[in-house]
Predict the structure.
Amino acid sequence: MKNDLLLRALARQPTDSTPVWLMRQAGRYLPEYNATRAKAGSFLKLAKTPALAAEVALQPLTRFPLDAAILFSDILTVPDAMGLGLYFAEGEGPRFERPLRDEAAIARLAAPDPTVELRYVLDAVRETRSALGDRVPLIGFSGSPYTLACYMIEGSGSSDWRAVKEMLYARPDLLHRILAVNALAVTDYLNAQIEAGAQVVMLFDTWGGNLTAVQYEEFSLSYMRQVLSQVRKVPRIVFTKGGGGWLENIAASGCDAVGLDWTVDPSAARQRVGAKVALQGNLDPAVLCAPPSRVREEVRRVLDAFGTAPGHIFNLGHGITPHARVDAVEALIDEVRTYSRQLRAARV
Ligand code: CP3
């Protein structure tokens, strides 16, 4: 591997500079992404065409000196492969034609065979790896069992996840049945991605933060722990948005790195988890709408807060938005490189 900064940071080994990649680094803020998406016809066609998925996964690396690539796909491909019928209504985000609402459908739910129903994702992993060569590591990913369940039950994104909460309180047995199937599906899916060439894996638990502390353990973390215990031994990152209150428990789940959203104080987080895991994050994605000089200032603030101890991976506190300025992203990456080097030089 020519650039092993990410792998070294995940192993809590010293690096000359802090590795940086961005959640959703391939996306609509890049004009070249929009052009390829237009050529494909839709986001789903893009994600389901391995050659085009590999092309857009590499676009941000062609433009910026990033330290990792991430598979171009979506977390909702797994419920789609379970037969729920994923589609994107223009301007409305993801939806399912057949959300899980009745007991019979939940009883029938089964984990897909990723080598059959998700073959296009595995082909995208292989194509992306061969296009990347050994430049930087490739991150594979999945939604967490709970976050997938949220979309599967609700049928779309939601501000209050009412259908999910209703099931959680009235029929927790049904929710547990969905989560058990999802945990099997996610385990098989990640193992298949690793076999196809993913060198690091990440669990996106975007909605775990809508639970109480007790529920988070029962409905989200315990299933992620189960997945992690059965995934092949590559470095793994767990990100629960809104999980700042439970960092100690997440750090003990069997992951190598914990993702932090922008509400978490990095130095307090480091004190709480000790040197057991690496930390990833946590610049507010909204700052990418500001001029580059403000971005540089905020990047330095985040790097200062994490300090120079090994085991920090610079990222946003959540995915990049379509409104991000390309010059702001460029400034972010450049400032991480130059300022993190300066910090290390000042220490010796
Ligand atoms: O990070 C990367 O570059 C890899 C690609 C990636 C996408 N989705 C591509 C995508 C990853 C890692 C995801 C994960 C994902 N998808 C999550 C978890 C992370 C998070 O952001 O919380 C979630 C919750 C989803 C579900 C999803 N997919 C939503 C809510 C949306 C709509 C977003 C929007 O702004 O419309 C998507 C669509 C999606 N996934 C896009 C991309 C680039 C935009 C689709 C388009 O081009 O129109």
Q: What stands out?
A: The CA atoms of residues 78 and 185 lie 7 Å apart. The chain has a mean pLDDT of 97.
